[in-house]
Amino acid sequence: MFTQKVTAITVGYVGMFLLLTPLLFGCQSVSESAPITVDEPTDPIQTVLFEQVLSPAGLTKRSYGFLYAYADLNGDTEDELLILMQDPYFCGSGGCSAFLFDSSQQLMSSMSVVKRPILLSHTDTNGWKNIAVWSDGTLRLLKFDGQNYPANASTQPRFNRNKARSVAHDIVVNSDLYQDGGYELIESDDLAMFTLIDQFQFQFKRESAAQHLFIATVNALNGDIFFSQQPIIED
Fold it and tell me: Residue 25 forms beta bridges with which residues?
Protein backbone atom coordinates (compact mmCIF):
# COMPACT_ATOMS: atom_id res chain seq x y z
CA MET A 1 0.00 0.00 0.00
CA PHE A 2 1.31 3.45 -0.74
CA THR A 3 0.20 7.02 -0.46
CA GLN A 4 1.17 9.23 -3.34
CA LYS A 5 1.65 12.96 -3.07
CA VAL A 6 3.45 14.39 -6.06
CA THR A 7 3.76 18.01 -7.03
CA ALA A 8 6.04 20.46 -8.73
CA ILE A 9 8.00 22.95 -6.72
CA THR A 10 9.14 26.39 -7.77
CA VAL A 11 11.50 28.28 -5.54
CA GLY A 12 12.29 31.91 -6.16
CA TYR A 13 15.13 34.35 -5.68
CA VAL A 14 13.22 36.70 -3.44
CA GLY A 15 14.06 35.19 -0.07
CA MET A 16 11.08 32.85 0.11
CA PHE A 17 9.89 29.57 -1.37
CA LEU A 18 6.66 29.24 -3.37
CA LEU A 19 4.72 25.98 -3.51
CA LEU A 20 2.67 25.36 -6.65
CA THR A 21 0.09 22.54 -6.65
CA PRO A 22 -2.19 22.86 -9.71
CA LEU A 23 -0.73 19.75 -11.36
CA LEU A 24 0.37 16.33 -10.17
CA PHE A 25 3.81 16.73 -11.57
CA GLY A 26 5.92 18.96 -13.77
CA CYS A 27 9.02 21.07 -13.90
CA GLN A 28 9.58 24.74 -13.45
CA SER A 29 11.92 27.27 -14.98
CA VAL A 30 14.48 29.04 -12.84
CA SER A 31 15.24 32.71 -13.21
CA GLU A 32 18.55 33.61 -14.78
CA SER A 33 18.87 36.77 -12.67
CA ALA A 34 21.82 37.11 -10.32
CA PRO A 35 21.28 34.78 -7.33
CA ILE A 36 21.05 36.07 -3.79
CA THR A 37 21.06 34.14 -0.54
CA VAL A 38 17.60 32.74 0.14
CA ASP A 39 15.98 32.53 3.54
CA GLU A 40 15.76 29.10 5.13
CA PRO A 41 12.37 27.70 4.11
CA THR A 42 9.52 26.96 6.47
CA ASP A 43 7.68 24.41 4.29
CA PRO A 44 8.43 20.92 5.74
CA ILE A 45 9.52 19.29 2.47
CA GLN A 46 11.69 22.21 1.43
CA THR A 47 13.18 22.35 4.93
CA VAL A 48 14.23 18.70 4.71
CA LEU A 49 15.98 19.35 1.40
CA PHE A 50 17.55 22.61 2.56
CA GLU A 51 18.89 21.29 5.86
CA GLN A 52 20.08 17.83 4.80
CA VAL A 53 21.16 18.29 1.18
CA LEU A 54 21.62 21.91 0.11
CA SER A 55 23.06 23.51 3.23
CA PRO A 56 25.69 20.79 3.97
CA ALA A 57 26.91 21.14 0.38
CA GLY A 58 27.04 24.92 0.62
CA LEU A 59 24.25 25.31 -1.93
CA THR A 60 22.40 28.15 -0.23
CA LYS A 61 22.95 30.96 -2.73
CA ARG A 62 19.94 30.17 -4.89
CA SER A 63 16.96 27.85 -5.17
CA TYR A 64 16.66 24.44 -6.83
CA GLY A 65 13.60 22.82 -8.40
CA PHE A 66 12.50 19.33 -7.45
CA LEU A 67 9.64 16.82 -7.41
CA TYR A 68 8.65 14.66 -4.46
CA ALA A 69 6.51 11.66 -3.58
CA TYR A 70 5.62 9.55 -0.55
CA ALA A 71 5.33 5.76 -0.27
CA ASP A 72 5.55 3.15 2.47
CA LEU A 73 8.58 1.22 1.25
CA ASN A 74 9.18 -1.07 4.23
CA GLY A 75 5.65 -2.00 5.25
CA ASP A 76 5.63 -0.23 8.63
CA THR A 77 2.61 1.94 7.63
CA GLU A 78 4.83 5.05 7.74
CA ASP A 79 5.68 6.83 4.50
CA GLU A 80 9.20 7.40 3.25
CA LEU A 81 9.92 10.53 1.19
CA LEU A 82 11.66 10.63 -2.19
CA ILE A 83 12.88 13.92 -3.62
CA LEU A 84 13.94 13.99 -7.28
CA MET A 85 15.93 17.06 -8.25
CA GLN A 86 15.00 18.94 -11.44
CA ASP A 87 17.75 21.54 -11.61
CA PRO A 88 20.66 21.35 -14.10
CA TYR A 89 23.11 21.49 -11.18
CA PHE A 90 21.88 18.05 -10.08
CA CYS A 91 21.18 16.59 -13.52
CA GLY A 92 23.12 15.13 -16.41
CA SER A 93 22.17 13.53 -19.70
CA GLY A 94 21.35 10.21 -18.02
CA GLY A 95 19.29 11.52 -15.12
CA CYS A 96 19.23 13.56 -11.93
CA SER A 97 20.06 13.14 -8.25
CA ALA A 98 17.40 11.68 -5.98
CA PHE A 99 17.32 11.63 -2.19
CA LEU A 100 15.38 9.14 -0.08
CA PHE A 101 14.39 10.03 3.47
CA ASP A 102 13.08 7.57 6.06
CA SER A 103 9.75 7.96 7.85
CA SER A 104 11.46 10.28 10.35
CA GLN A 105 12.57 12.37 7.36
CA GLN A 106 16.24 11.60 7.87
CA LEU A 107 18.37 11.16 4.75
CA MET A 108 19.03 7.47 4.18
CA SER A 109 19.99 7.12 0.48
CA SER A 110 21.37 9.37 -2.22
CA MET A 111 20.99 8.16 -5.81
CA SER A 112 22.34 9.54 -9.07
CA VAL A 113 21.26 9.24 -12.71
CA VAL A 114 17.52 8.98 -11.98
CA LYS A 115 14.59 10.05 -14.17
CA ARG A 116 10.89 9.33 -14.23
CA PRO A 117 9.14 7.01 -14.42
CA ILE A 118 9.85 5.92 -10.85
CA LEU A 119 7.86 2.74 -10.30
CA LEU A 120 7.02 0.87 -7.12
CA SER A 121 7.35 -2.92 -7.35
CA HIS A 122 5.10 -5.45 -5.63
CA THR A 123 8.24 -7.42 -4.67
CA ASP A 124 10.79 -6.54 -2.00
CA THR A 125 14.39 -7.21 -0.98
CA ASN A 126 15.52 -7.22 2.66
CA GLY A 127 12.08 -6.00 3.68
CA TRP A 128 12.02 -2.95 1.36
CA LYS A 129 10.17 -2.52 -1.90
CA ASN A 130 12.14 -2.81 -5.12
CA ILE A 131 12.02 0.37 -7.18
CA ALA A 132 12.36 0.68 -10.97
CA VAL A 133 13.66 4.01 -12.26
CA TRP A 134 14.54 5.35 -15.69
CA SER A 135 18.30 5.74 -15.81
CA ASP A 136 20.75 6.22 -18.67
CA GLY A 137 18.17 5.38 -21.33
CA THR A 138 16.44 2.37 -19.79
CA LEU A 139 14.55 1.13 -16.75
CA ARG A 140 16.77 -0.09 -13.91
CA LEU A 141 15.74 -2.13 -10.87
CA LEU A 142 16.98 -0.83 -7.52
CA LYS A 143 17.06 -3.22 -4.57
CA PHE A 144 17.65 -2.42 -0.91
CA ASP A 145 20.89 -3.99 0.35
CA GLY A 146 19.95 -3.88 4.03
CA GLN A 147 21.11 -0.32 4.58
CA ASN A 148 20.64 1.67 1.36
CA TYR A 149 19.42 1.65 -2.20
CA PRO A 150 22.19 1.76 -4.87
CA ALA A 151 24.00 5.07 -5.16
CA ASN A 152 24.28 4.96 -8.96
CA ALA A 153 21.08 3.81 -10.65
CA SER A 154 22.75 3.46 -14.06
CA THR A 155 24.89 0.53 -12.83
CA GLN A 156 21.89 -1.57 -11.79
CA PRO A 157 20.24 -4.38 -13.80
CA ARG A 158 17.89 -3.43 -16.61
CA PHE A 159 14.22 -4.06 -16.02
CA ASN A 160 11.90 -5.04 -18.86
CA ARG A 161 8.17 -4.27 -18.69
CA ASN A 162 7.38 -5.34 -22.26
CA LYS A 163 5.36 -8.42 -21.31
CA ALA A 164 3.27 -6.52 -18.77
CA ARG A 165 2.87 -3.66 -21.25
CA SER A 166 1.52 -6.06 -23.86
CA VAL A 167 -0.98 -7.47 -21.37
CA ALA A 168 -2.13 -3.98 -20.40
CA HIS A 169 -2.42 -2.96 -24.04
CA ASP A 170 -4.64 -5.95 -24.82
CA ILE A 171 -6.86 -5.21 -21.81
CA VAL A 172 -7.53 -1.74 -23.16
CA VAL A 173 -8.05 -2.89 -26.75
CA ASN A 174 -10.56 -5.53 -25.64
CA SER A 175 -12.50 -3.18 -23.38
CA ASP A 176 -16.06 -2.28 -24.33
CA LEU A 177 -15.23 1.42 -24.42
CA TYR A 178 -12.38 1.00 -26.90
CA GLN A 179 -14.25 -1.58 -28.98
CA ASP A 180 -17.02 0.98 -29.45
CA GLY A 181 -15.23 3.19 -31.97
CA GLY A 182 -11.85 3.59 -30.28
CA TYR A 183 -8.79 4.60 -32.31
CA GLU A 184 -5.28 6.17 -32.06
CA LEU A 185 -4.32 4.20 -28.95
CA ILE A 186 -0.95 5.31 -27.54
CA GLU A 187 0.84 4.75 -24.25
CA SER A 188 1.48 7.70 -21.95
CA ASP A 189 4.85 7.80 -20.18
CA ASP A 190 4.00 10.83 -18.05
CA LEU A 191 3.47 8.74 -14.91
CA ALA A 192 3.38 10.04 -11.37
CA MET A 193 6.27 9.07 -9.12
CA PHE A 194 5.70 5.76 -7.31
CA THR A 195 3.18 4.53 -9.84
CA LEU A 196 2.81 0.76 -9.38
CA ILE A 197 5.21 -1.16 -11.58
CA ASP A 198 2.39 -3.17 -13.22
CA GLN A 199 0.29 -0.10 -13.94
CA PHE A 200 0.18 1.52 -17.37
CA GLN A 201 -1.67 4.46 -18.84
CA PHE A 202 -2.97 4.71 -22.39
CA GLN A 203 -4.93 7.37 -24.21
CA PHE A 204 -7.21 7.10 -27.22
CA LYS A 205 -10.00 8.80 -29.13
CA ARG A 206 -13.49 7.56 -29.95
CA GLU A 207 -15.50 8.17 -33.09
CA SER A 208 -18.61 9.07 -31.10
CA ALA A 209 -16.77 11.63 -28.97
CA ALA A 210 -14.13 13.16 -31.21
CA GLN A 211 -13.70 16.21 -28.98
CA HIS A 212 -12.55 14.16 -26.01
CA LEU A 213 -9.42 12.23 -25.14
CA PHE A 214 -10.00 9.02 -23.18
CA ILE A 215 -7.48 7.92 -20.55
CA ALA A 216 -7.23 4.24 -19.58
CA THR A 217 -5.30 3.34 -16.43
CA VAL A 218 -4.78 -0.39 -16.31
CA ASN A 219 -3.04 -2.83 -13.97
CA ALA A 220 -1.52 -5.69 -15.94
CA LEU A 221 -1.17 -7.86 -12.83
CA ASN A 222 -4.82 -7.97 -11.74
CA GLY A 223 -6.59 -6.70 -14.86
CA ASP A 224 -8.18 -3.66 -13.20
CA ILE A 225 -8.95 -0.82 -15.59
CA PHE A 226 -10.18 2.70 -14.94
CA PHE A 227 -11.31 5.20 -17.58
CA SER A 228 -11.43 8.97 -17.50
CA GLN A 229 -11.78 11.60 -20.20
CA GLN A 230 -10.76 15.15 -20.88
CA PRO A 231 -11.64 17.64 -23.60
CA ILE A 232 -9.19 18.05 -26.46
CA ILE A 233 -7.97 21.64 -26.49
CA GLU A 234 -7.06 22.87 -29.93
CA ASP A 235 -4.01 25.14 -30.26
Answer: none
Strands 80-85 and 91-92: unpaired
| Calpha distance 2→152 (Å, rounded) | 24
Q: Give the chain's radius of gyration (CA, Å).
A: 19
Q: Which amino acid is at 71?
A: A
- List, for residues 182-227, the tens digit of each pLDDT value: 999 999 988 999 999 999 999 999 999 989 999 999 999 999 999 9
With H, G, I as helix, E, B as strand and everything else as coil, classify residue 201: strand
Q: Which residues contact 217 (CB under 8 A, 6 or more apart)?
A: 199, 200, 201, 225, 226, 227, 228
Q: In angstroms, rounded to a whole number, what is the distance separating the alpha carbons of residues 192 and 55?
A: 28
Nearest Cα residue to 230 out of 213, 218, 207: 213
- Quote the percentage of the chain above a pLDDT of 70: 83
Per residue in 50-88, pLDDT (tens digit) is 999 999 999 998 899 999 999 999 999 999 999 999 999
In angstroms, the CA 43 to CA 148 distance is 26
**61: amino acid identity, one letter:** K
| Alpha carbon distances (Å) from 61 to 17, 36, 38, 46, 86 | 13, 6, 6, 15, 17
Rounded to an integer, what distance in angstroms lies between the CA atom of residue 221 and that of residue 185? Answer: 20
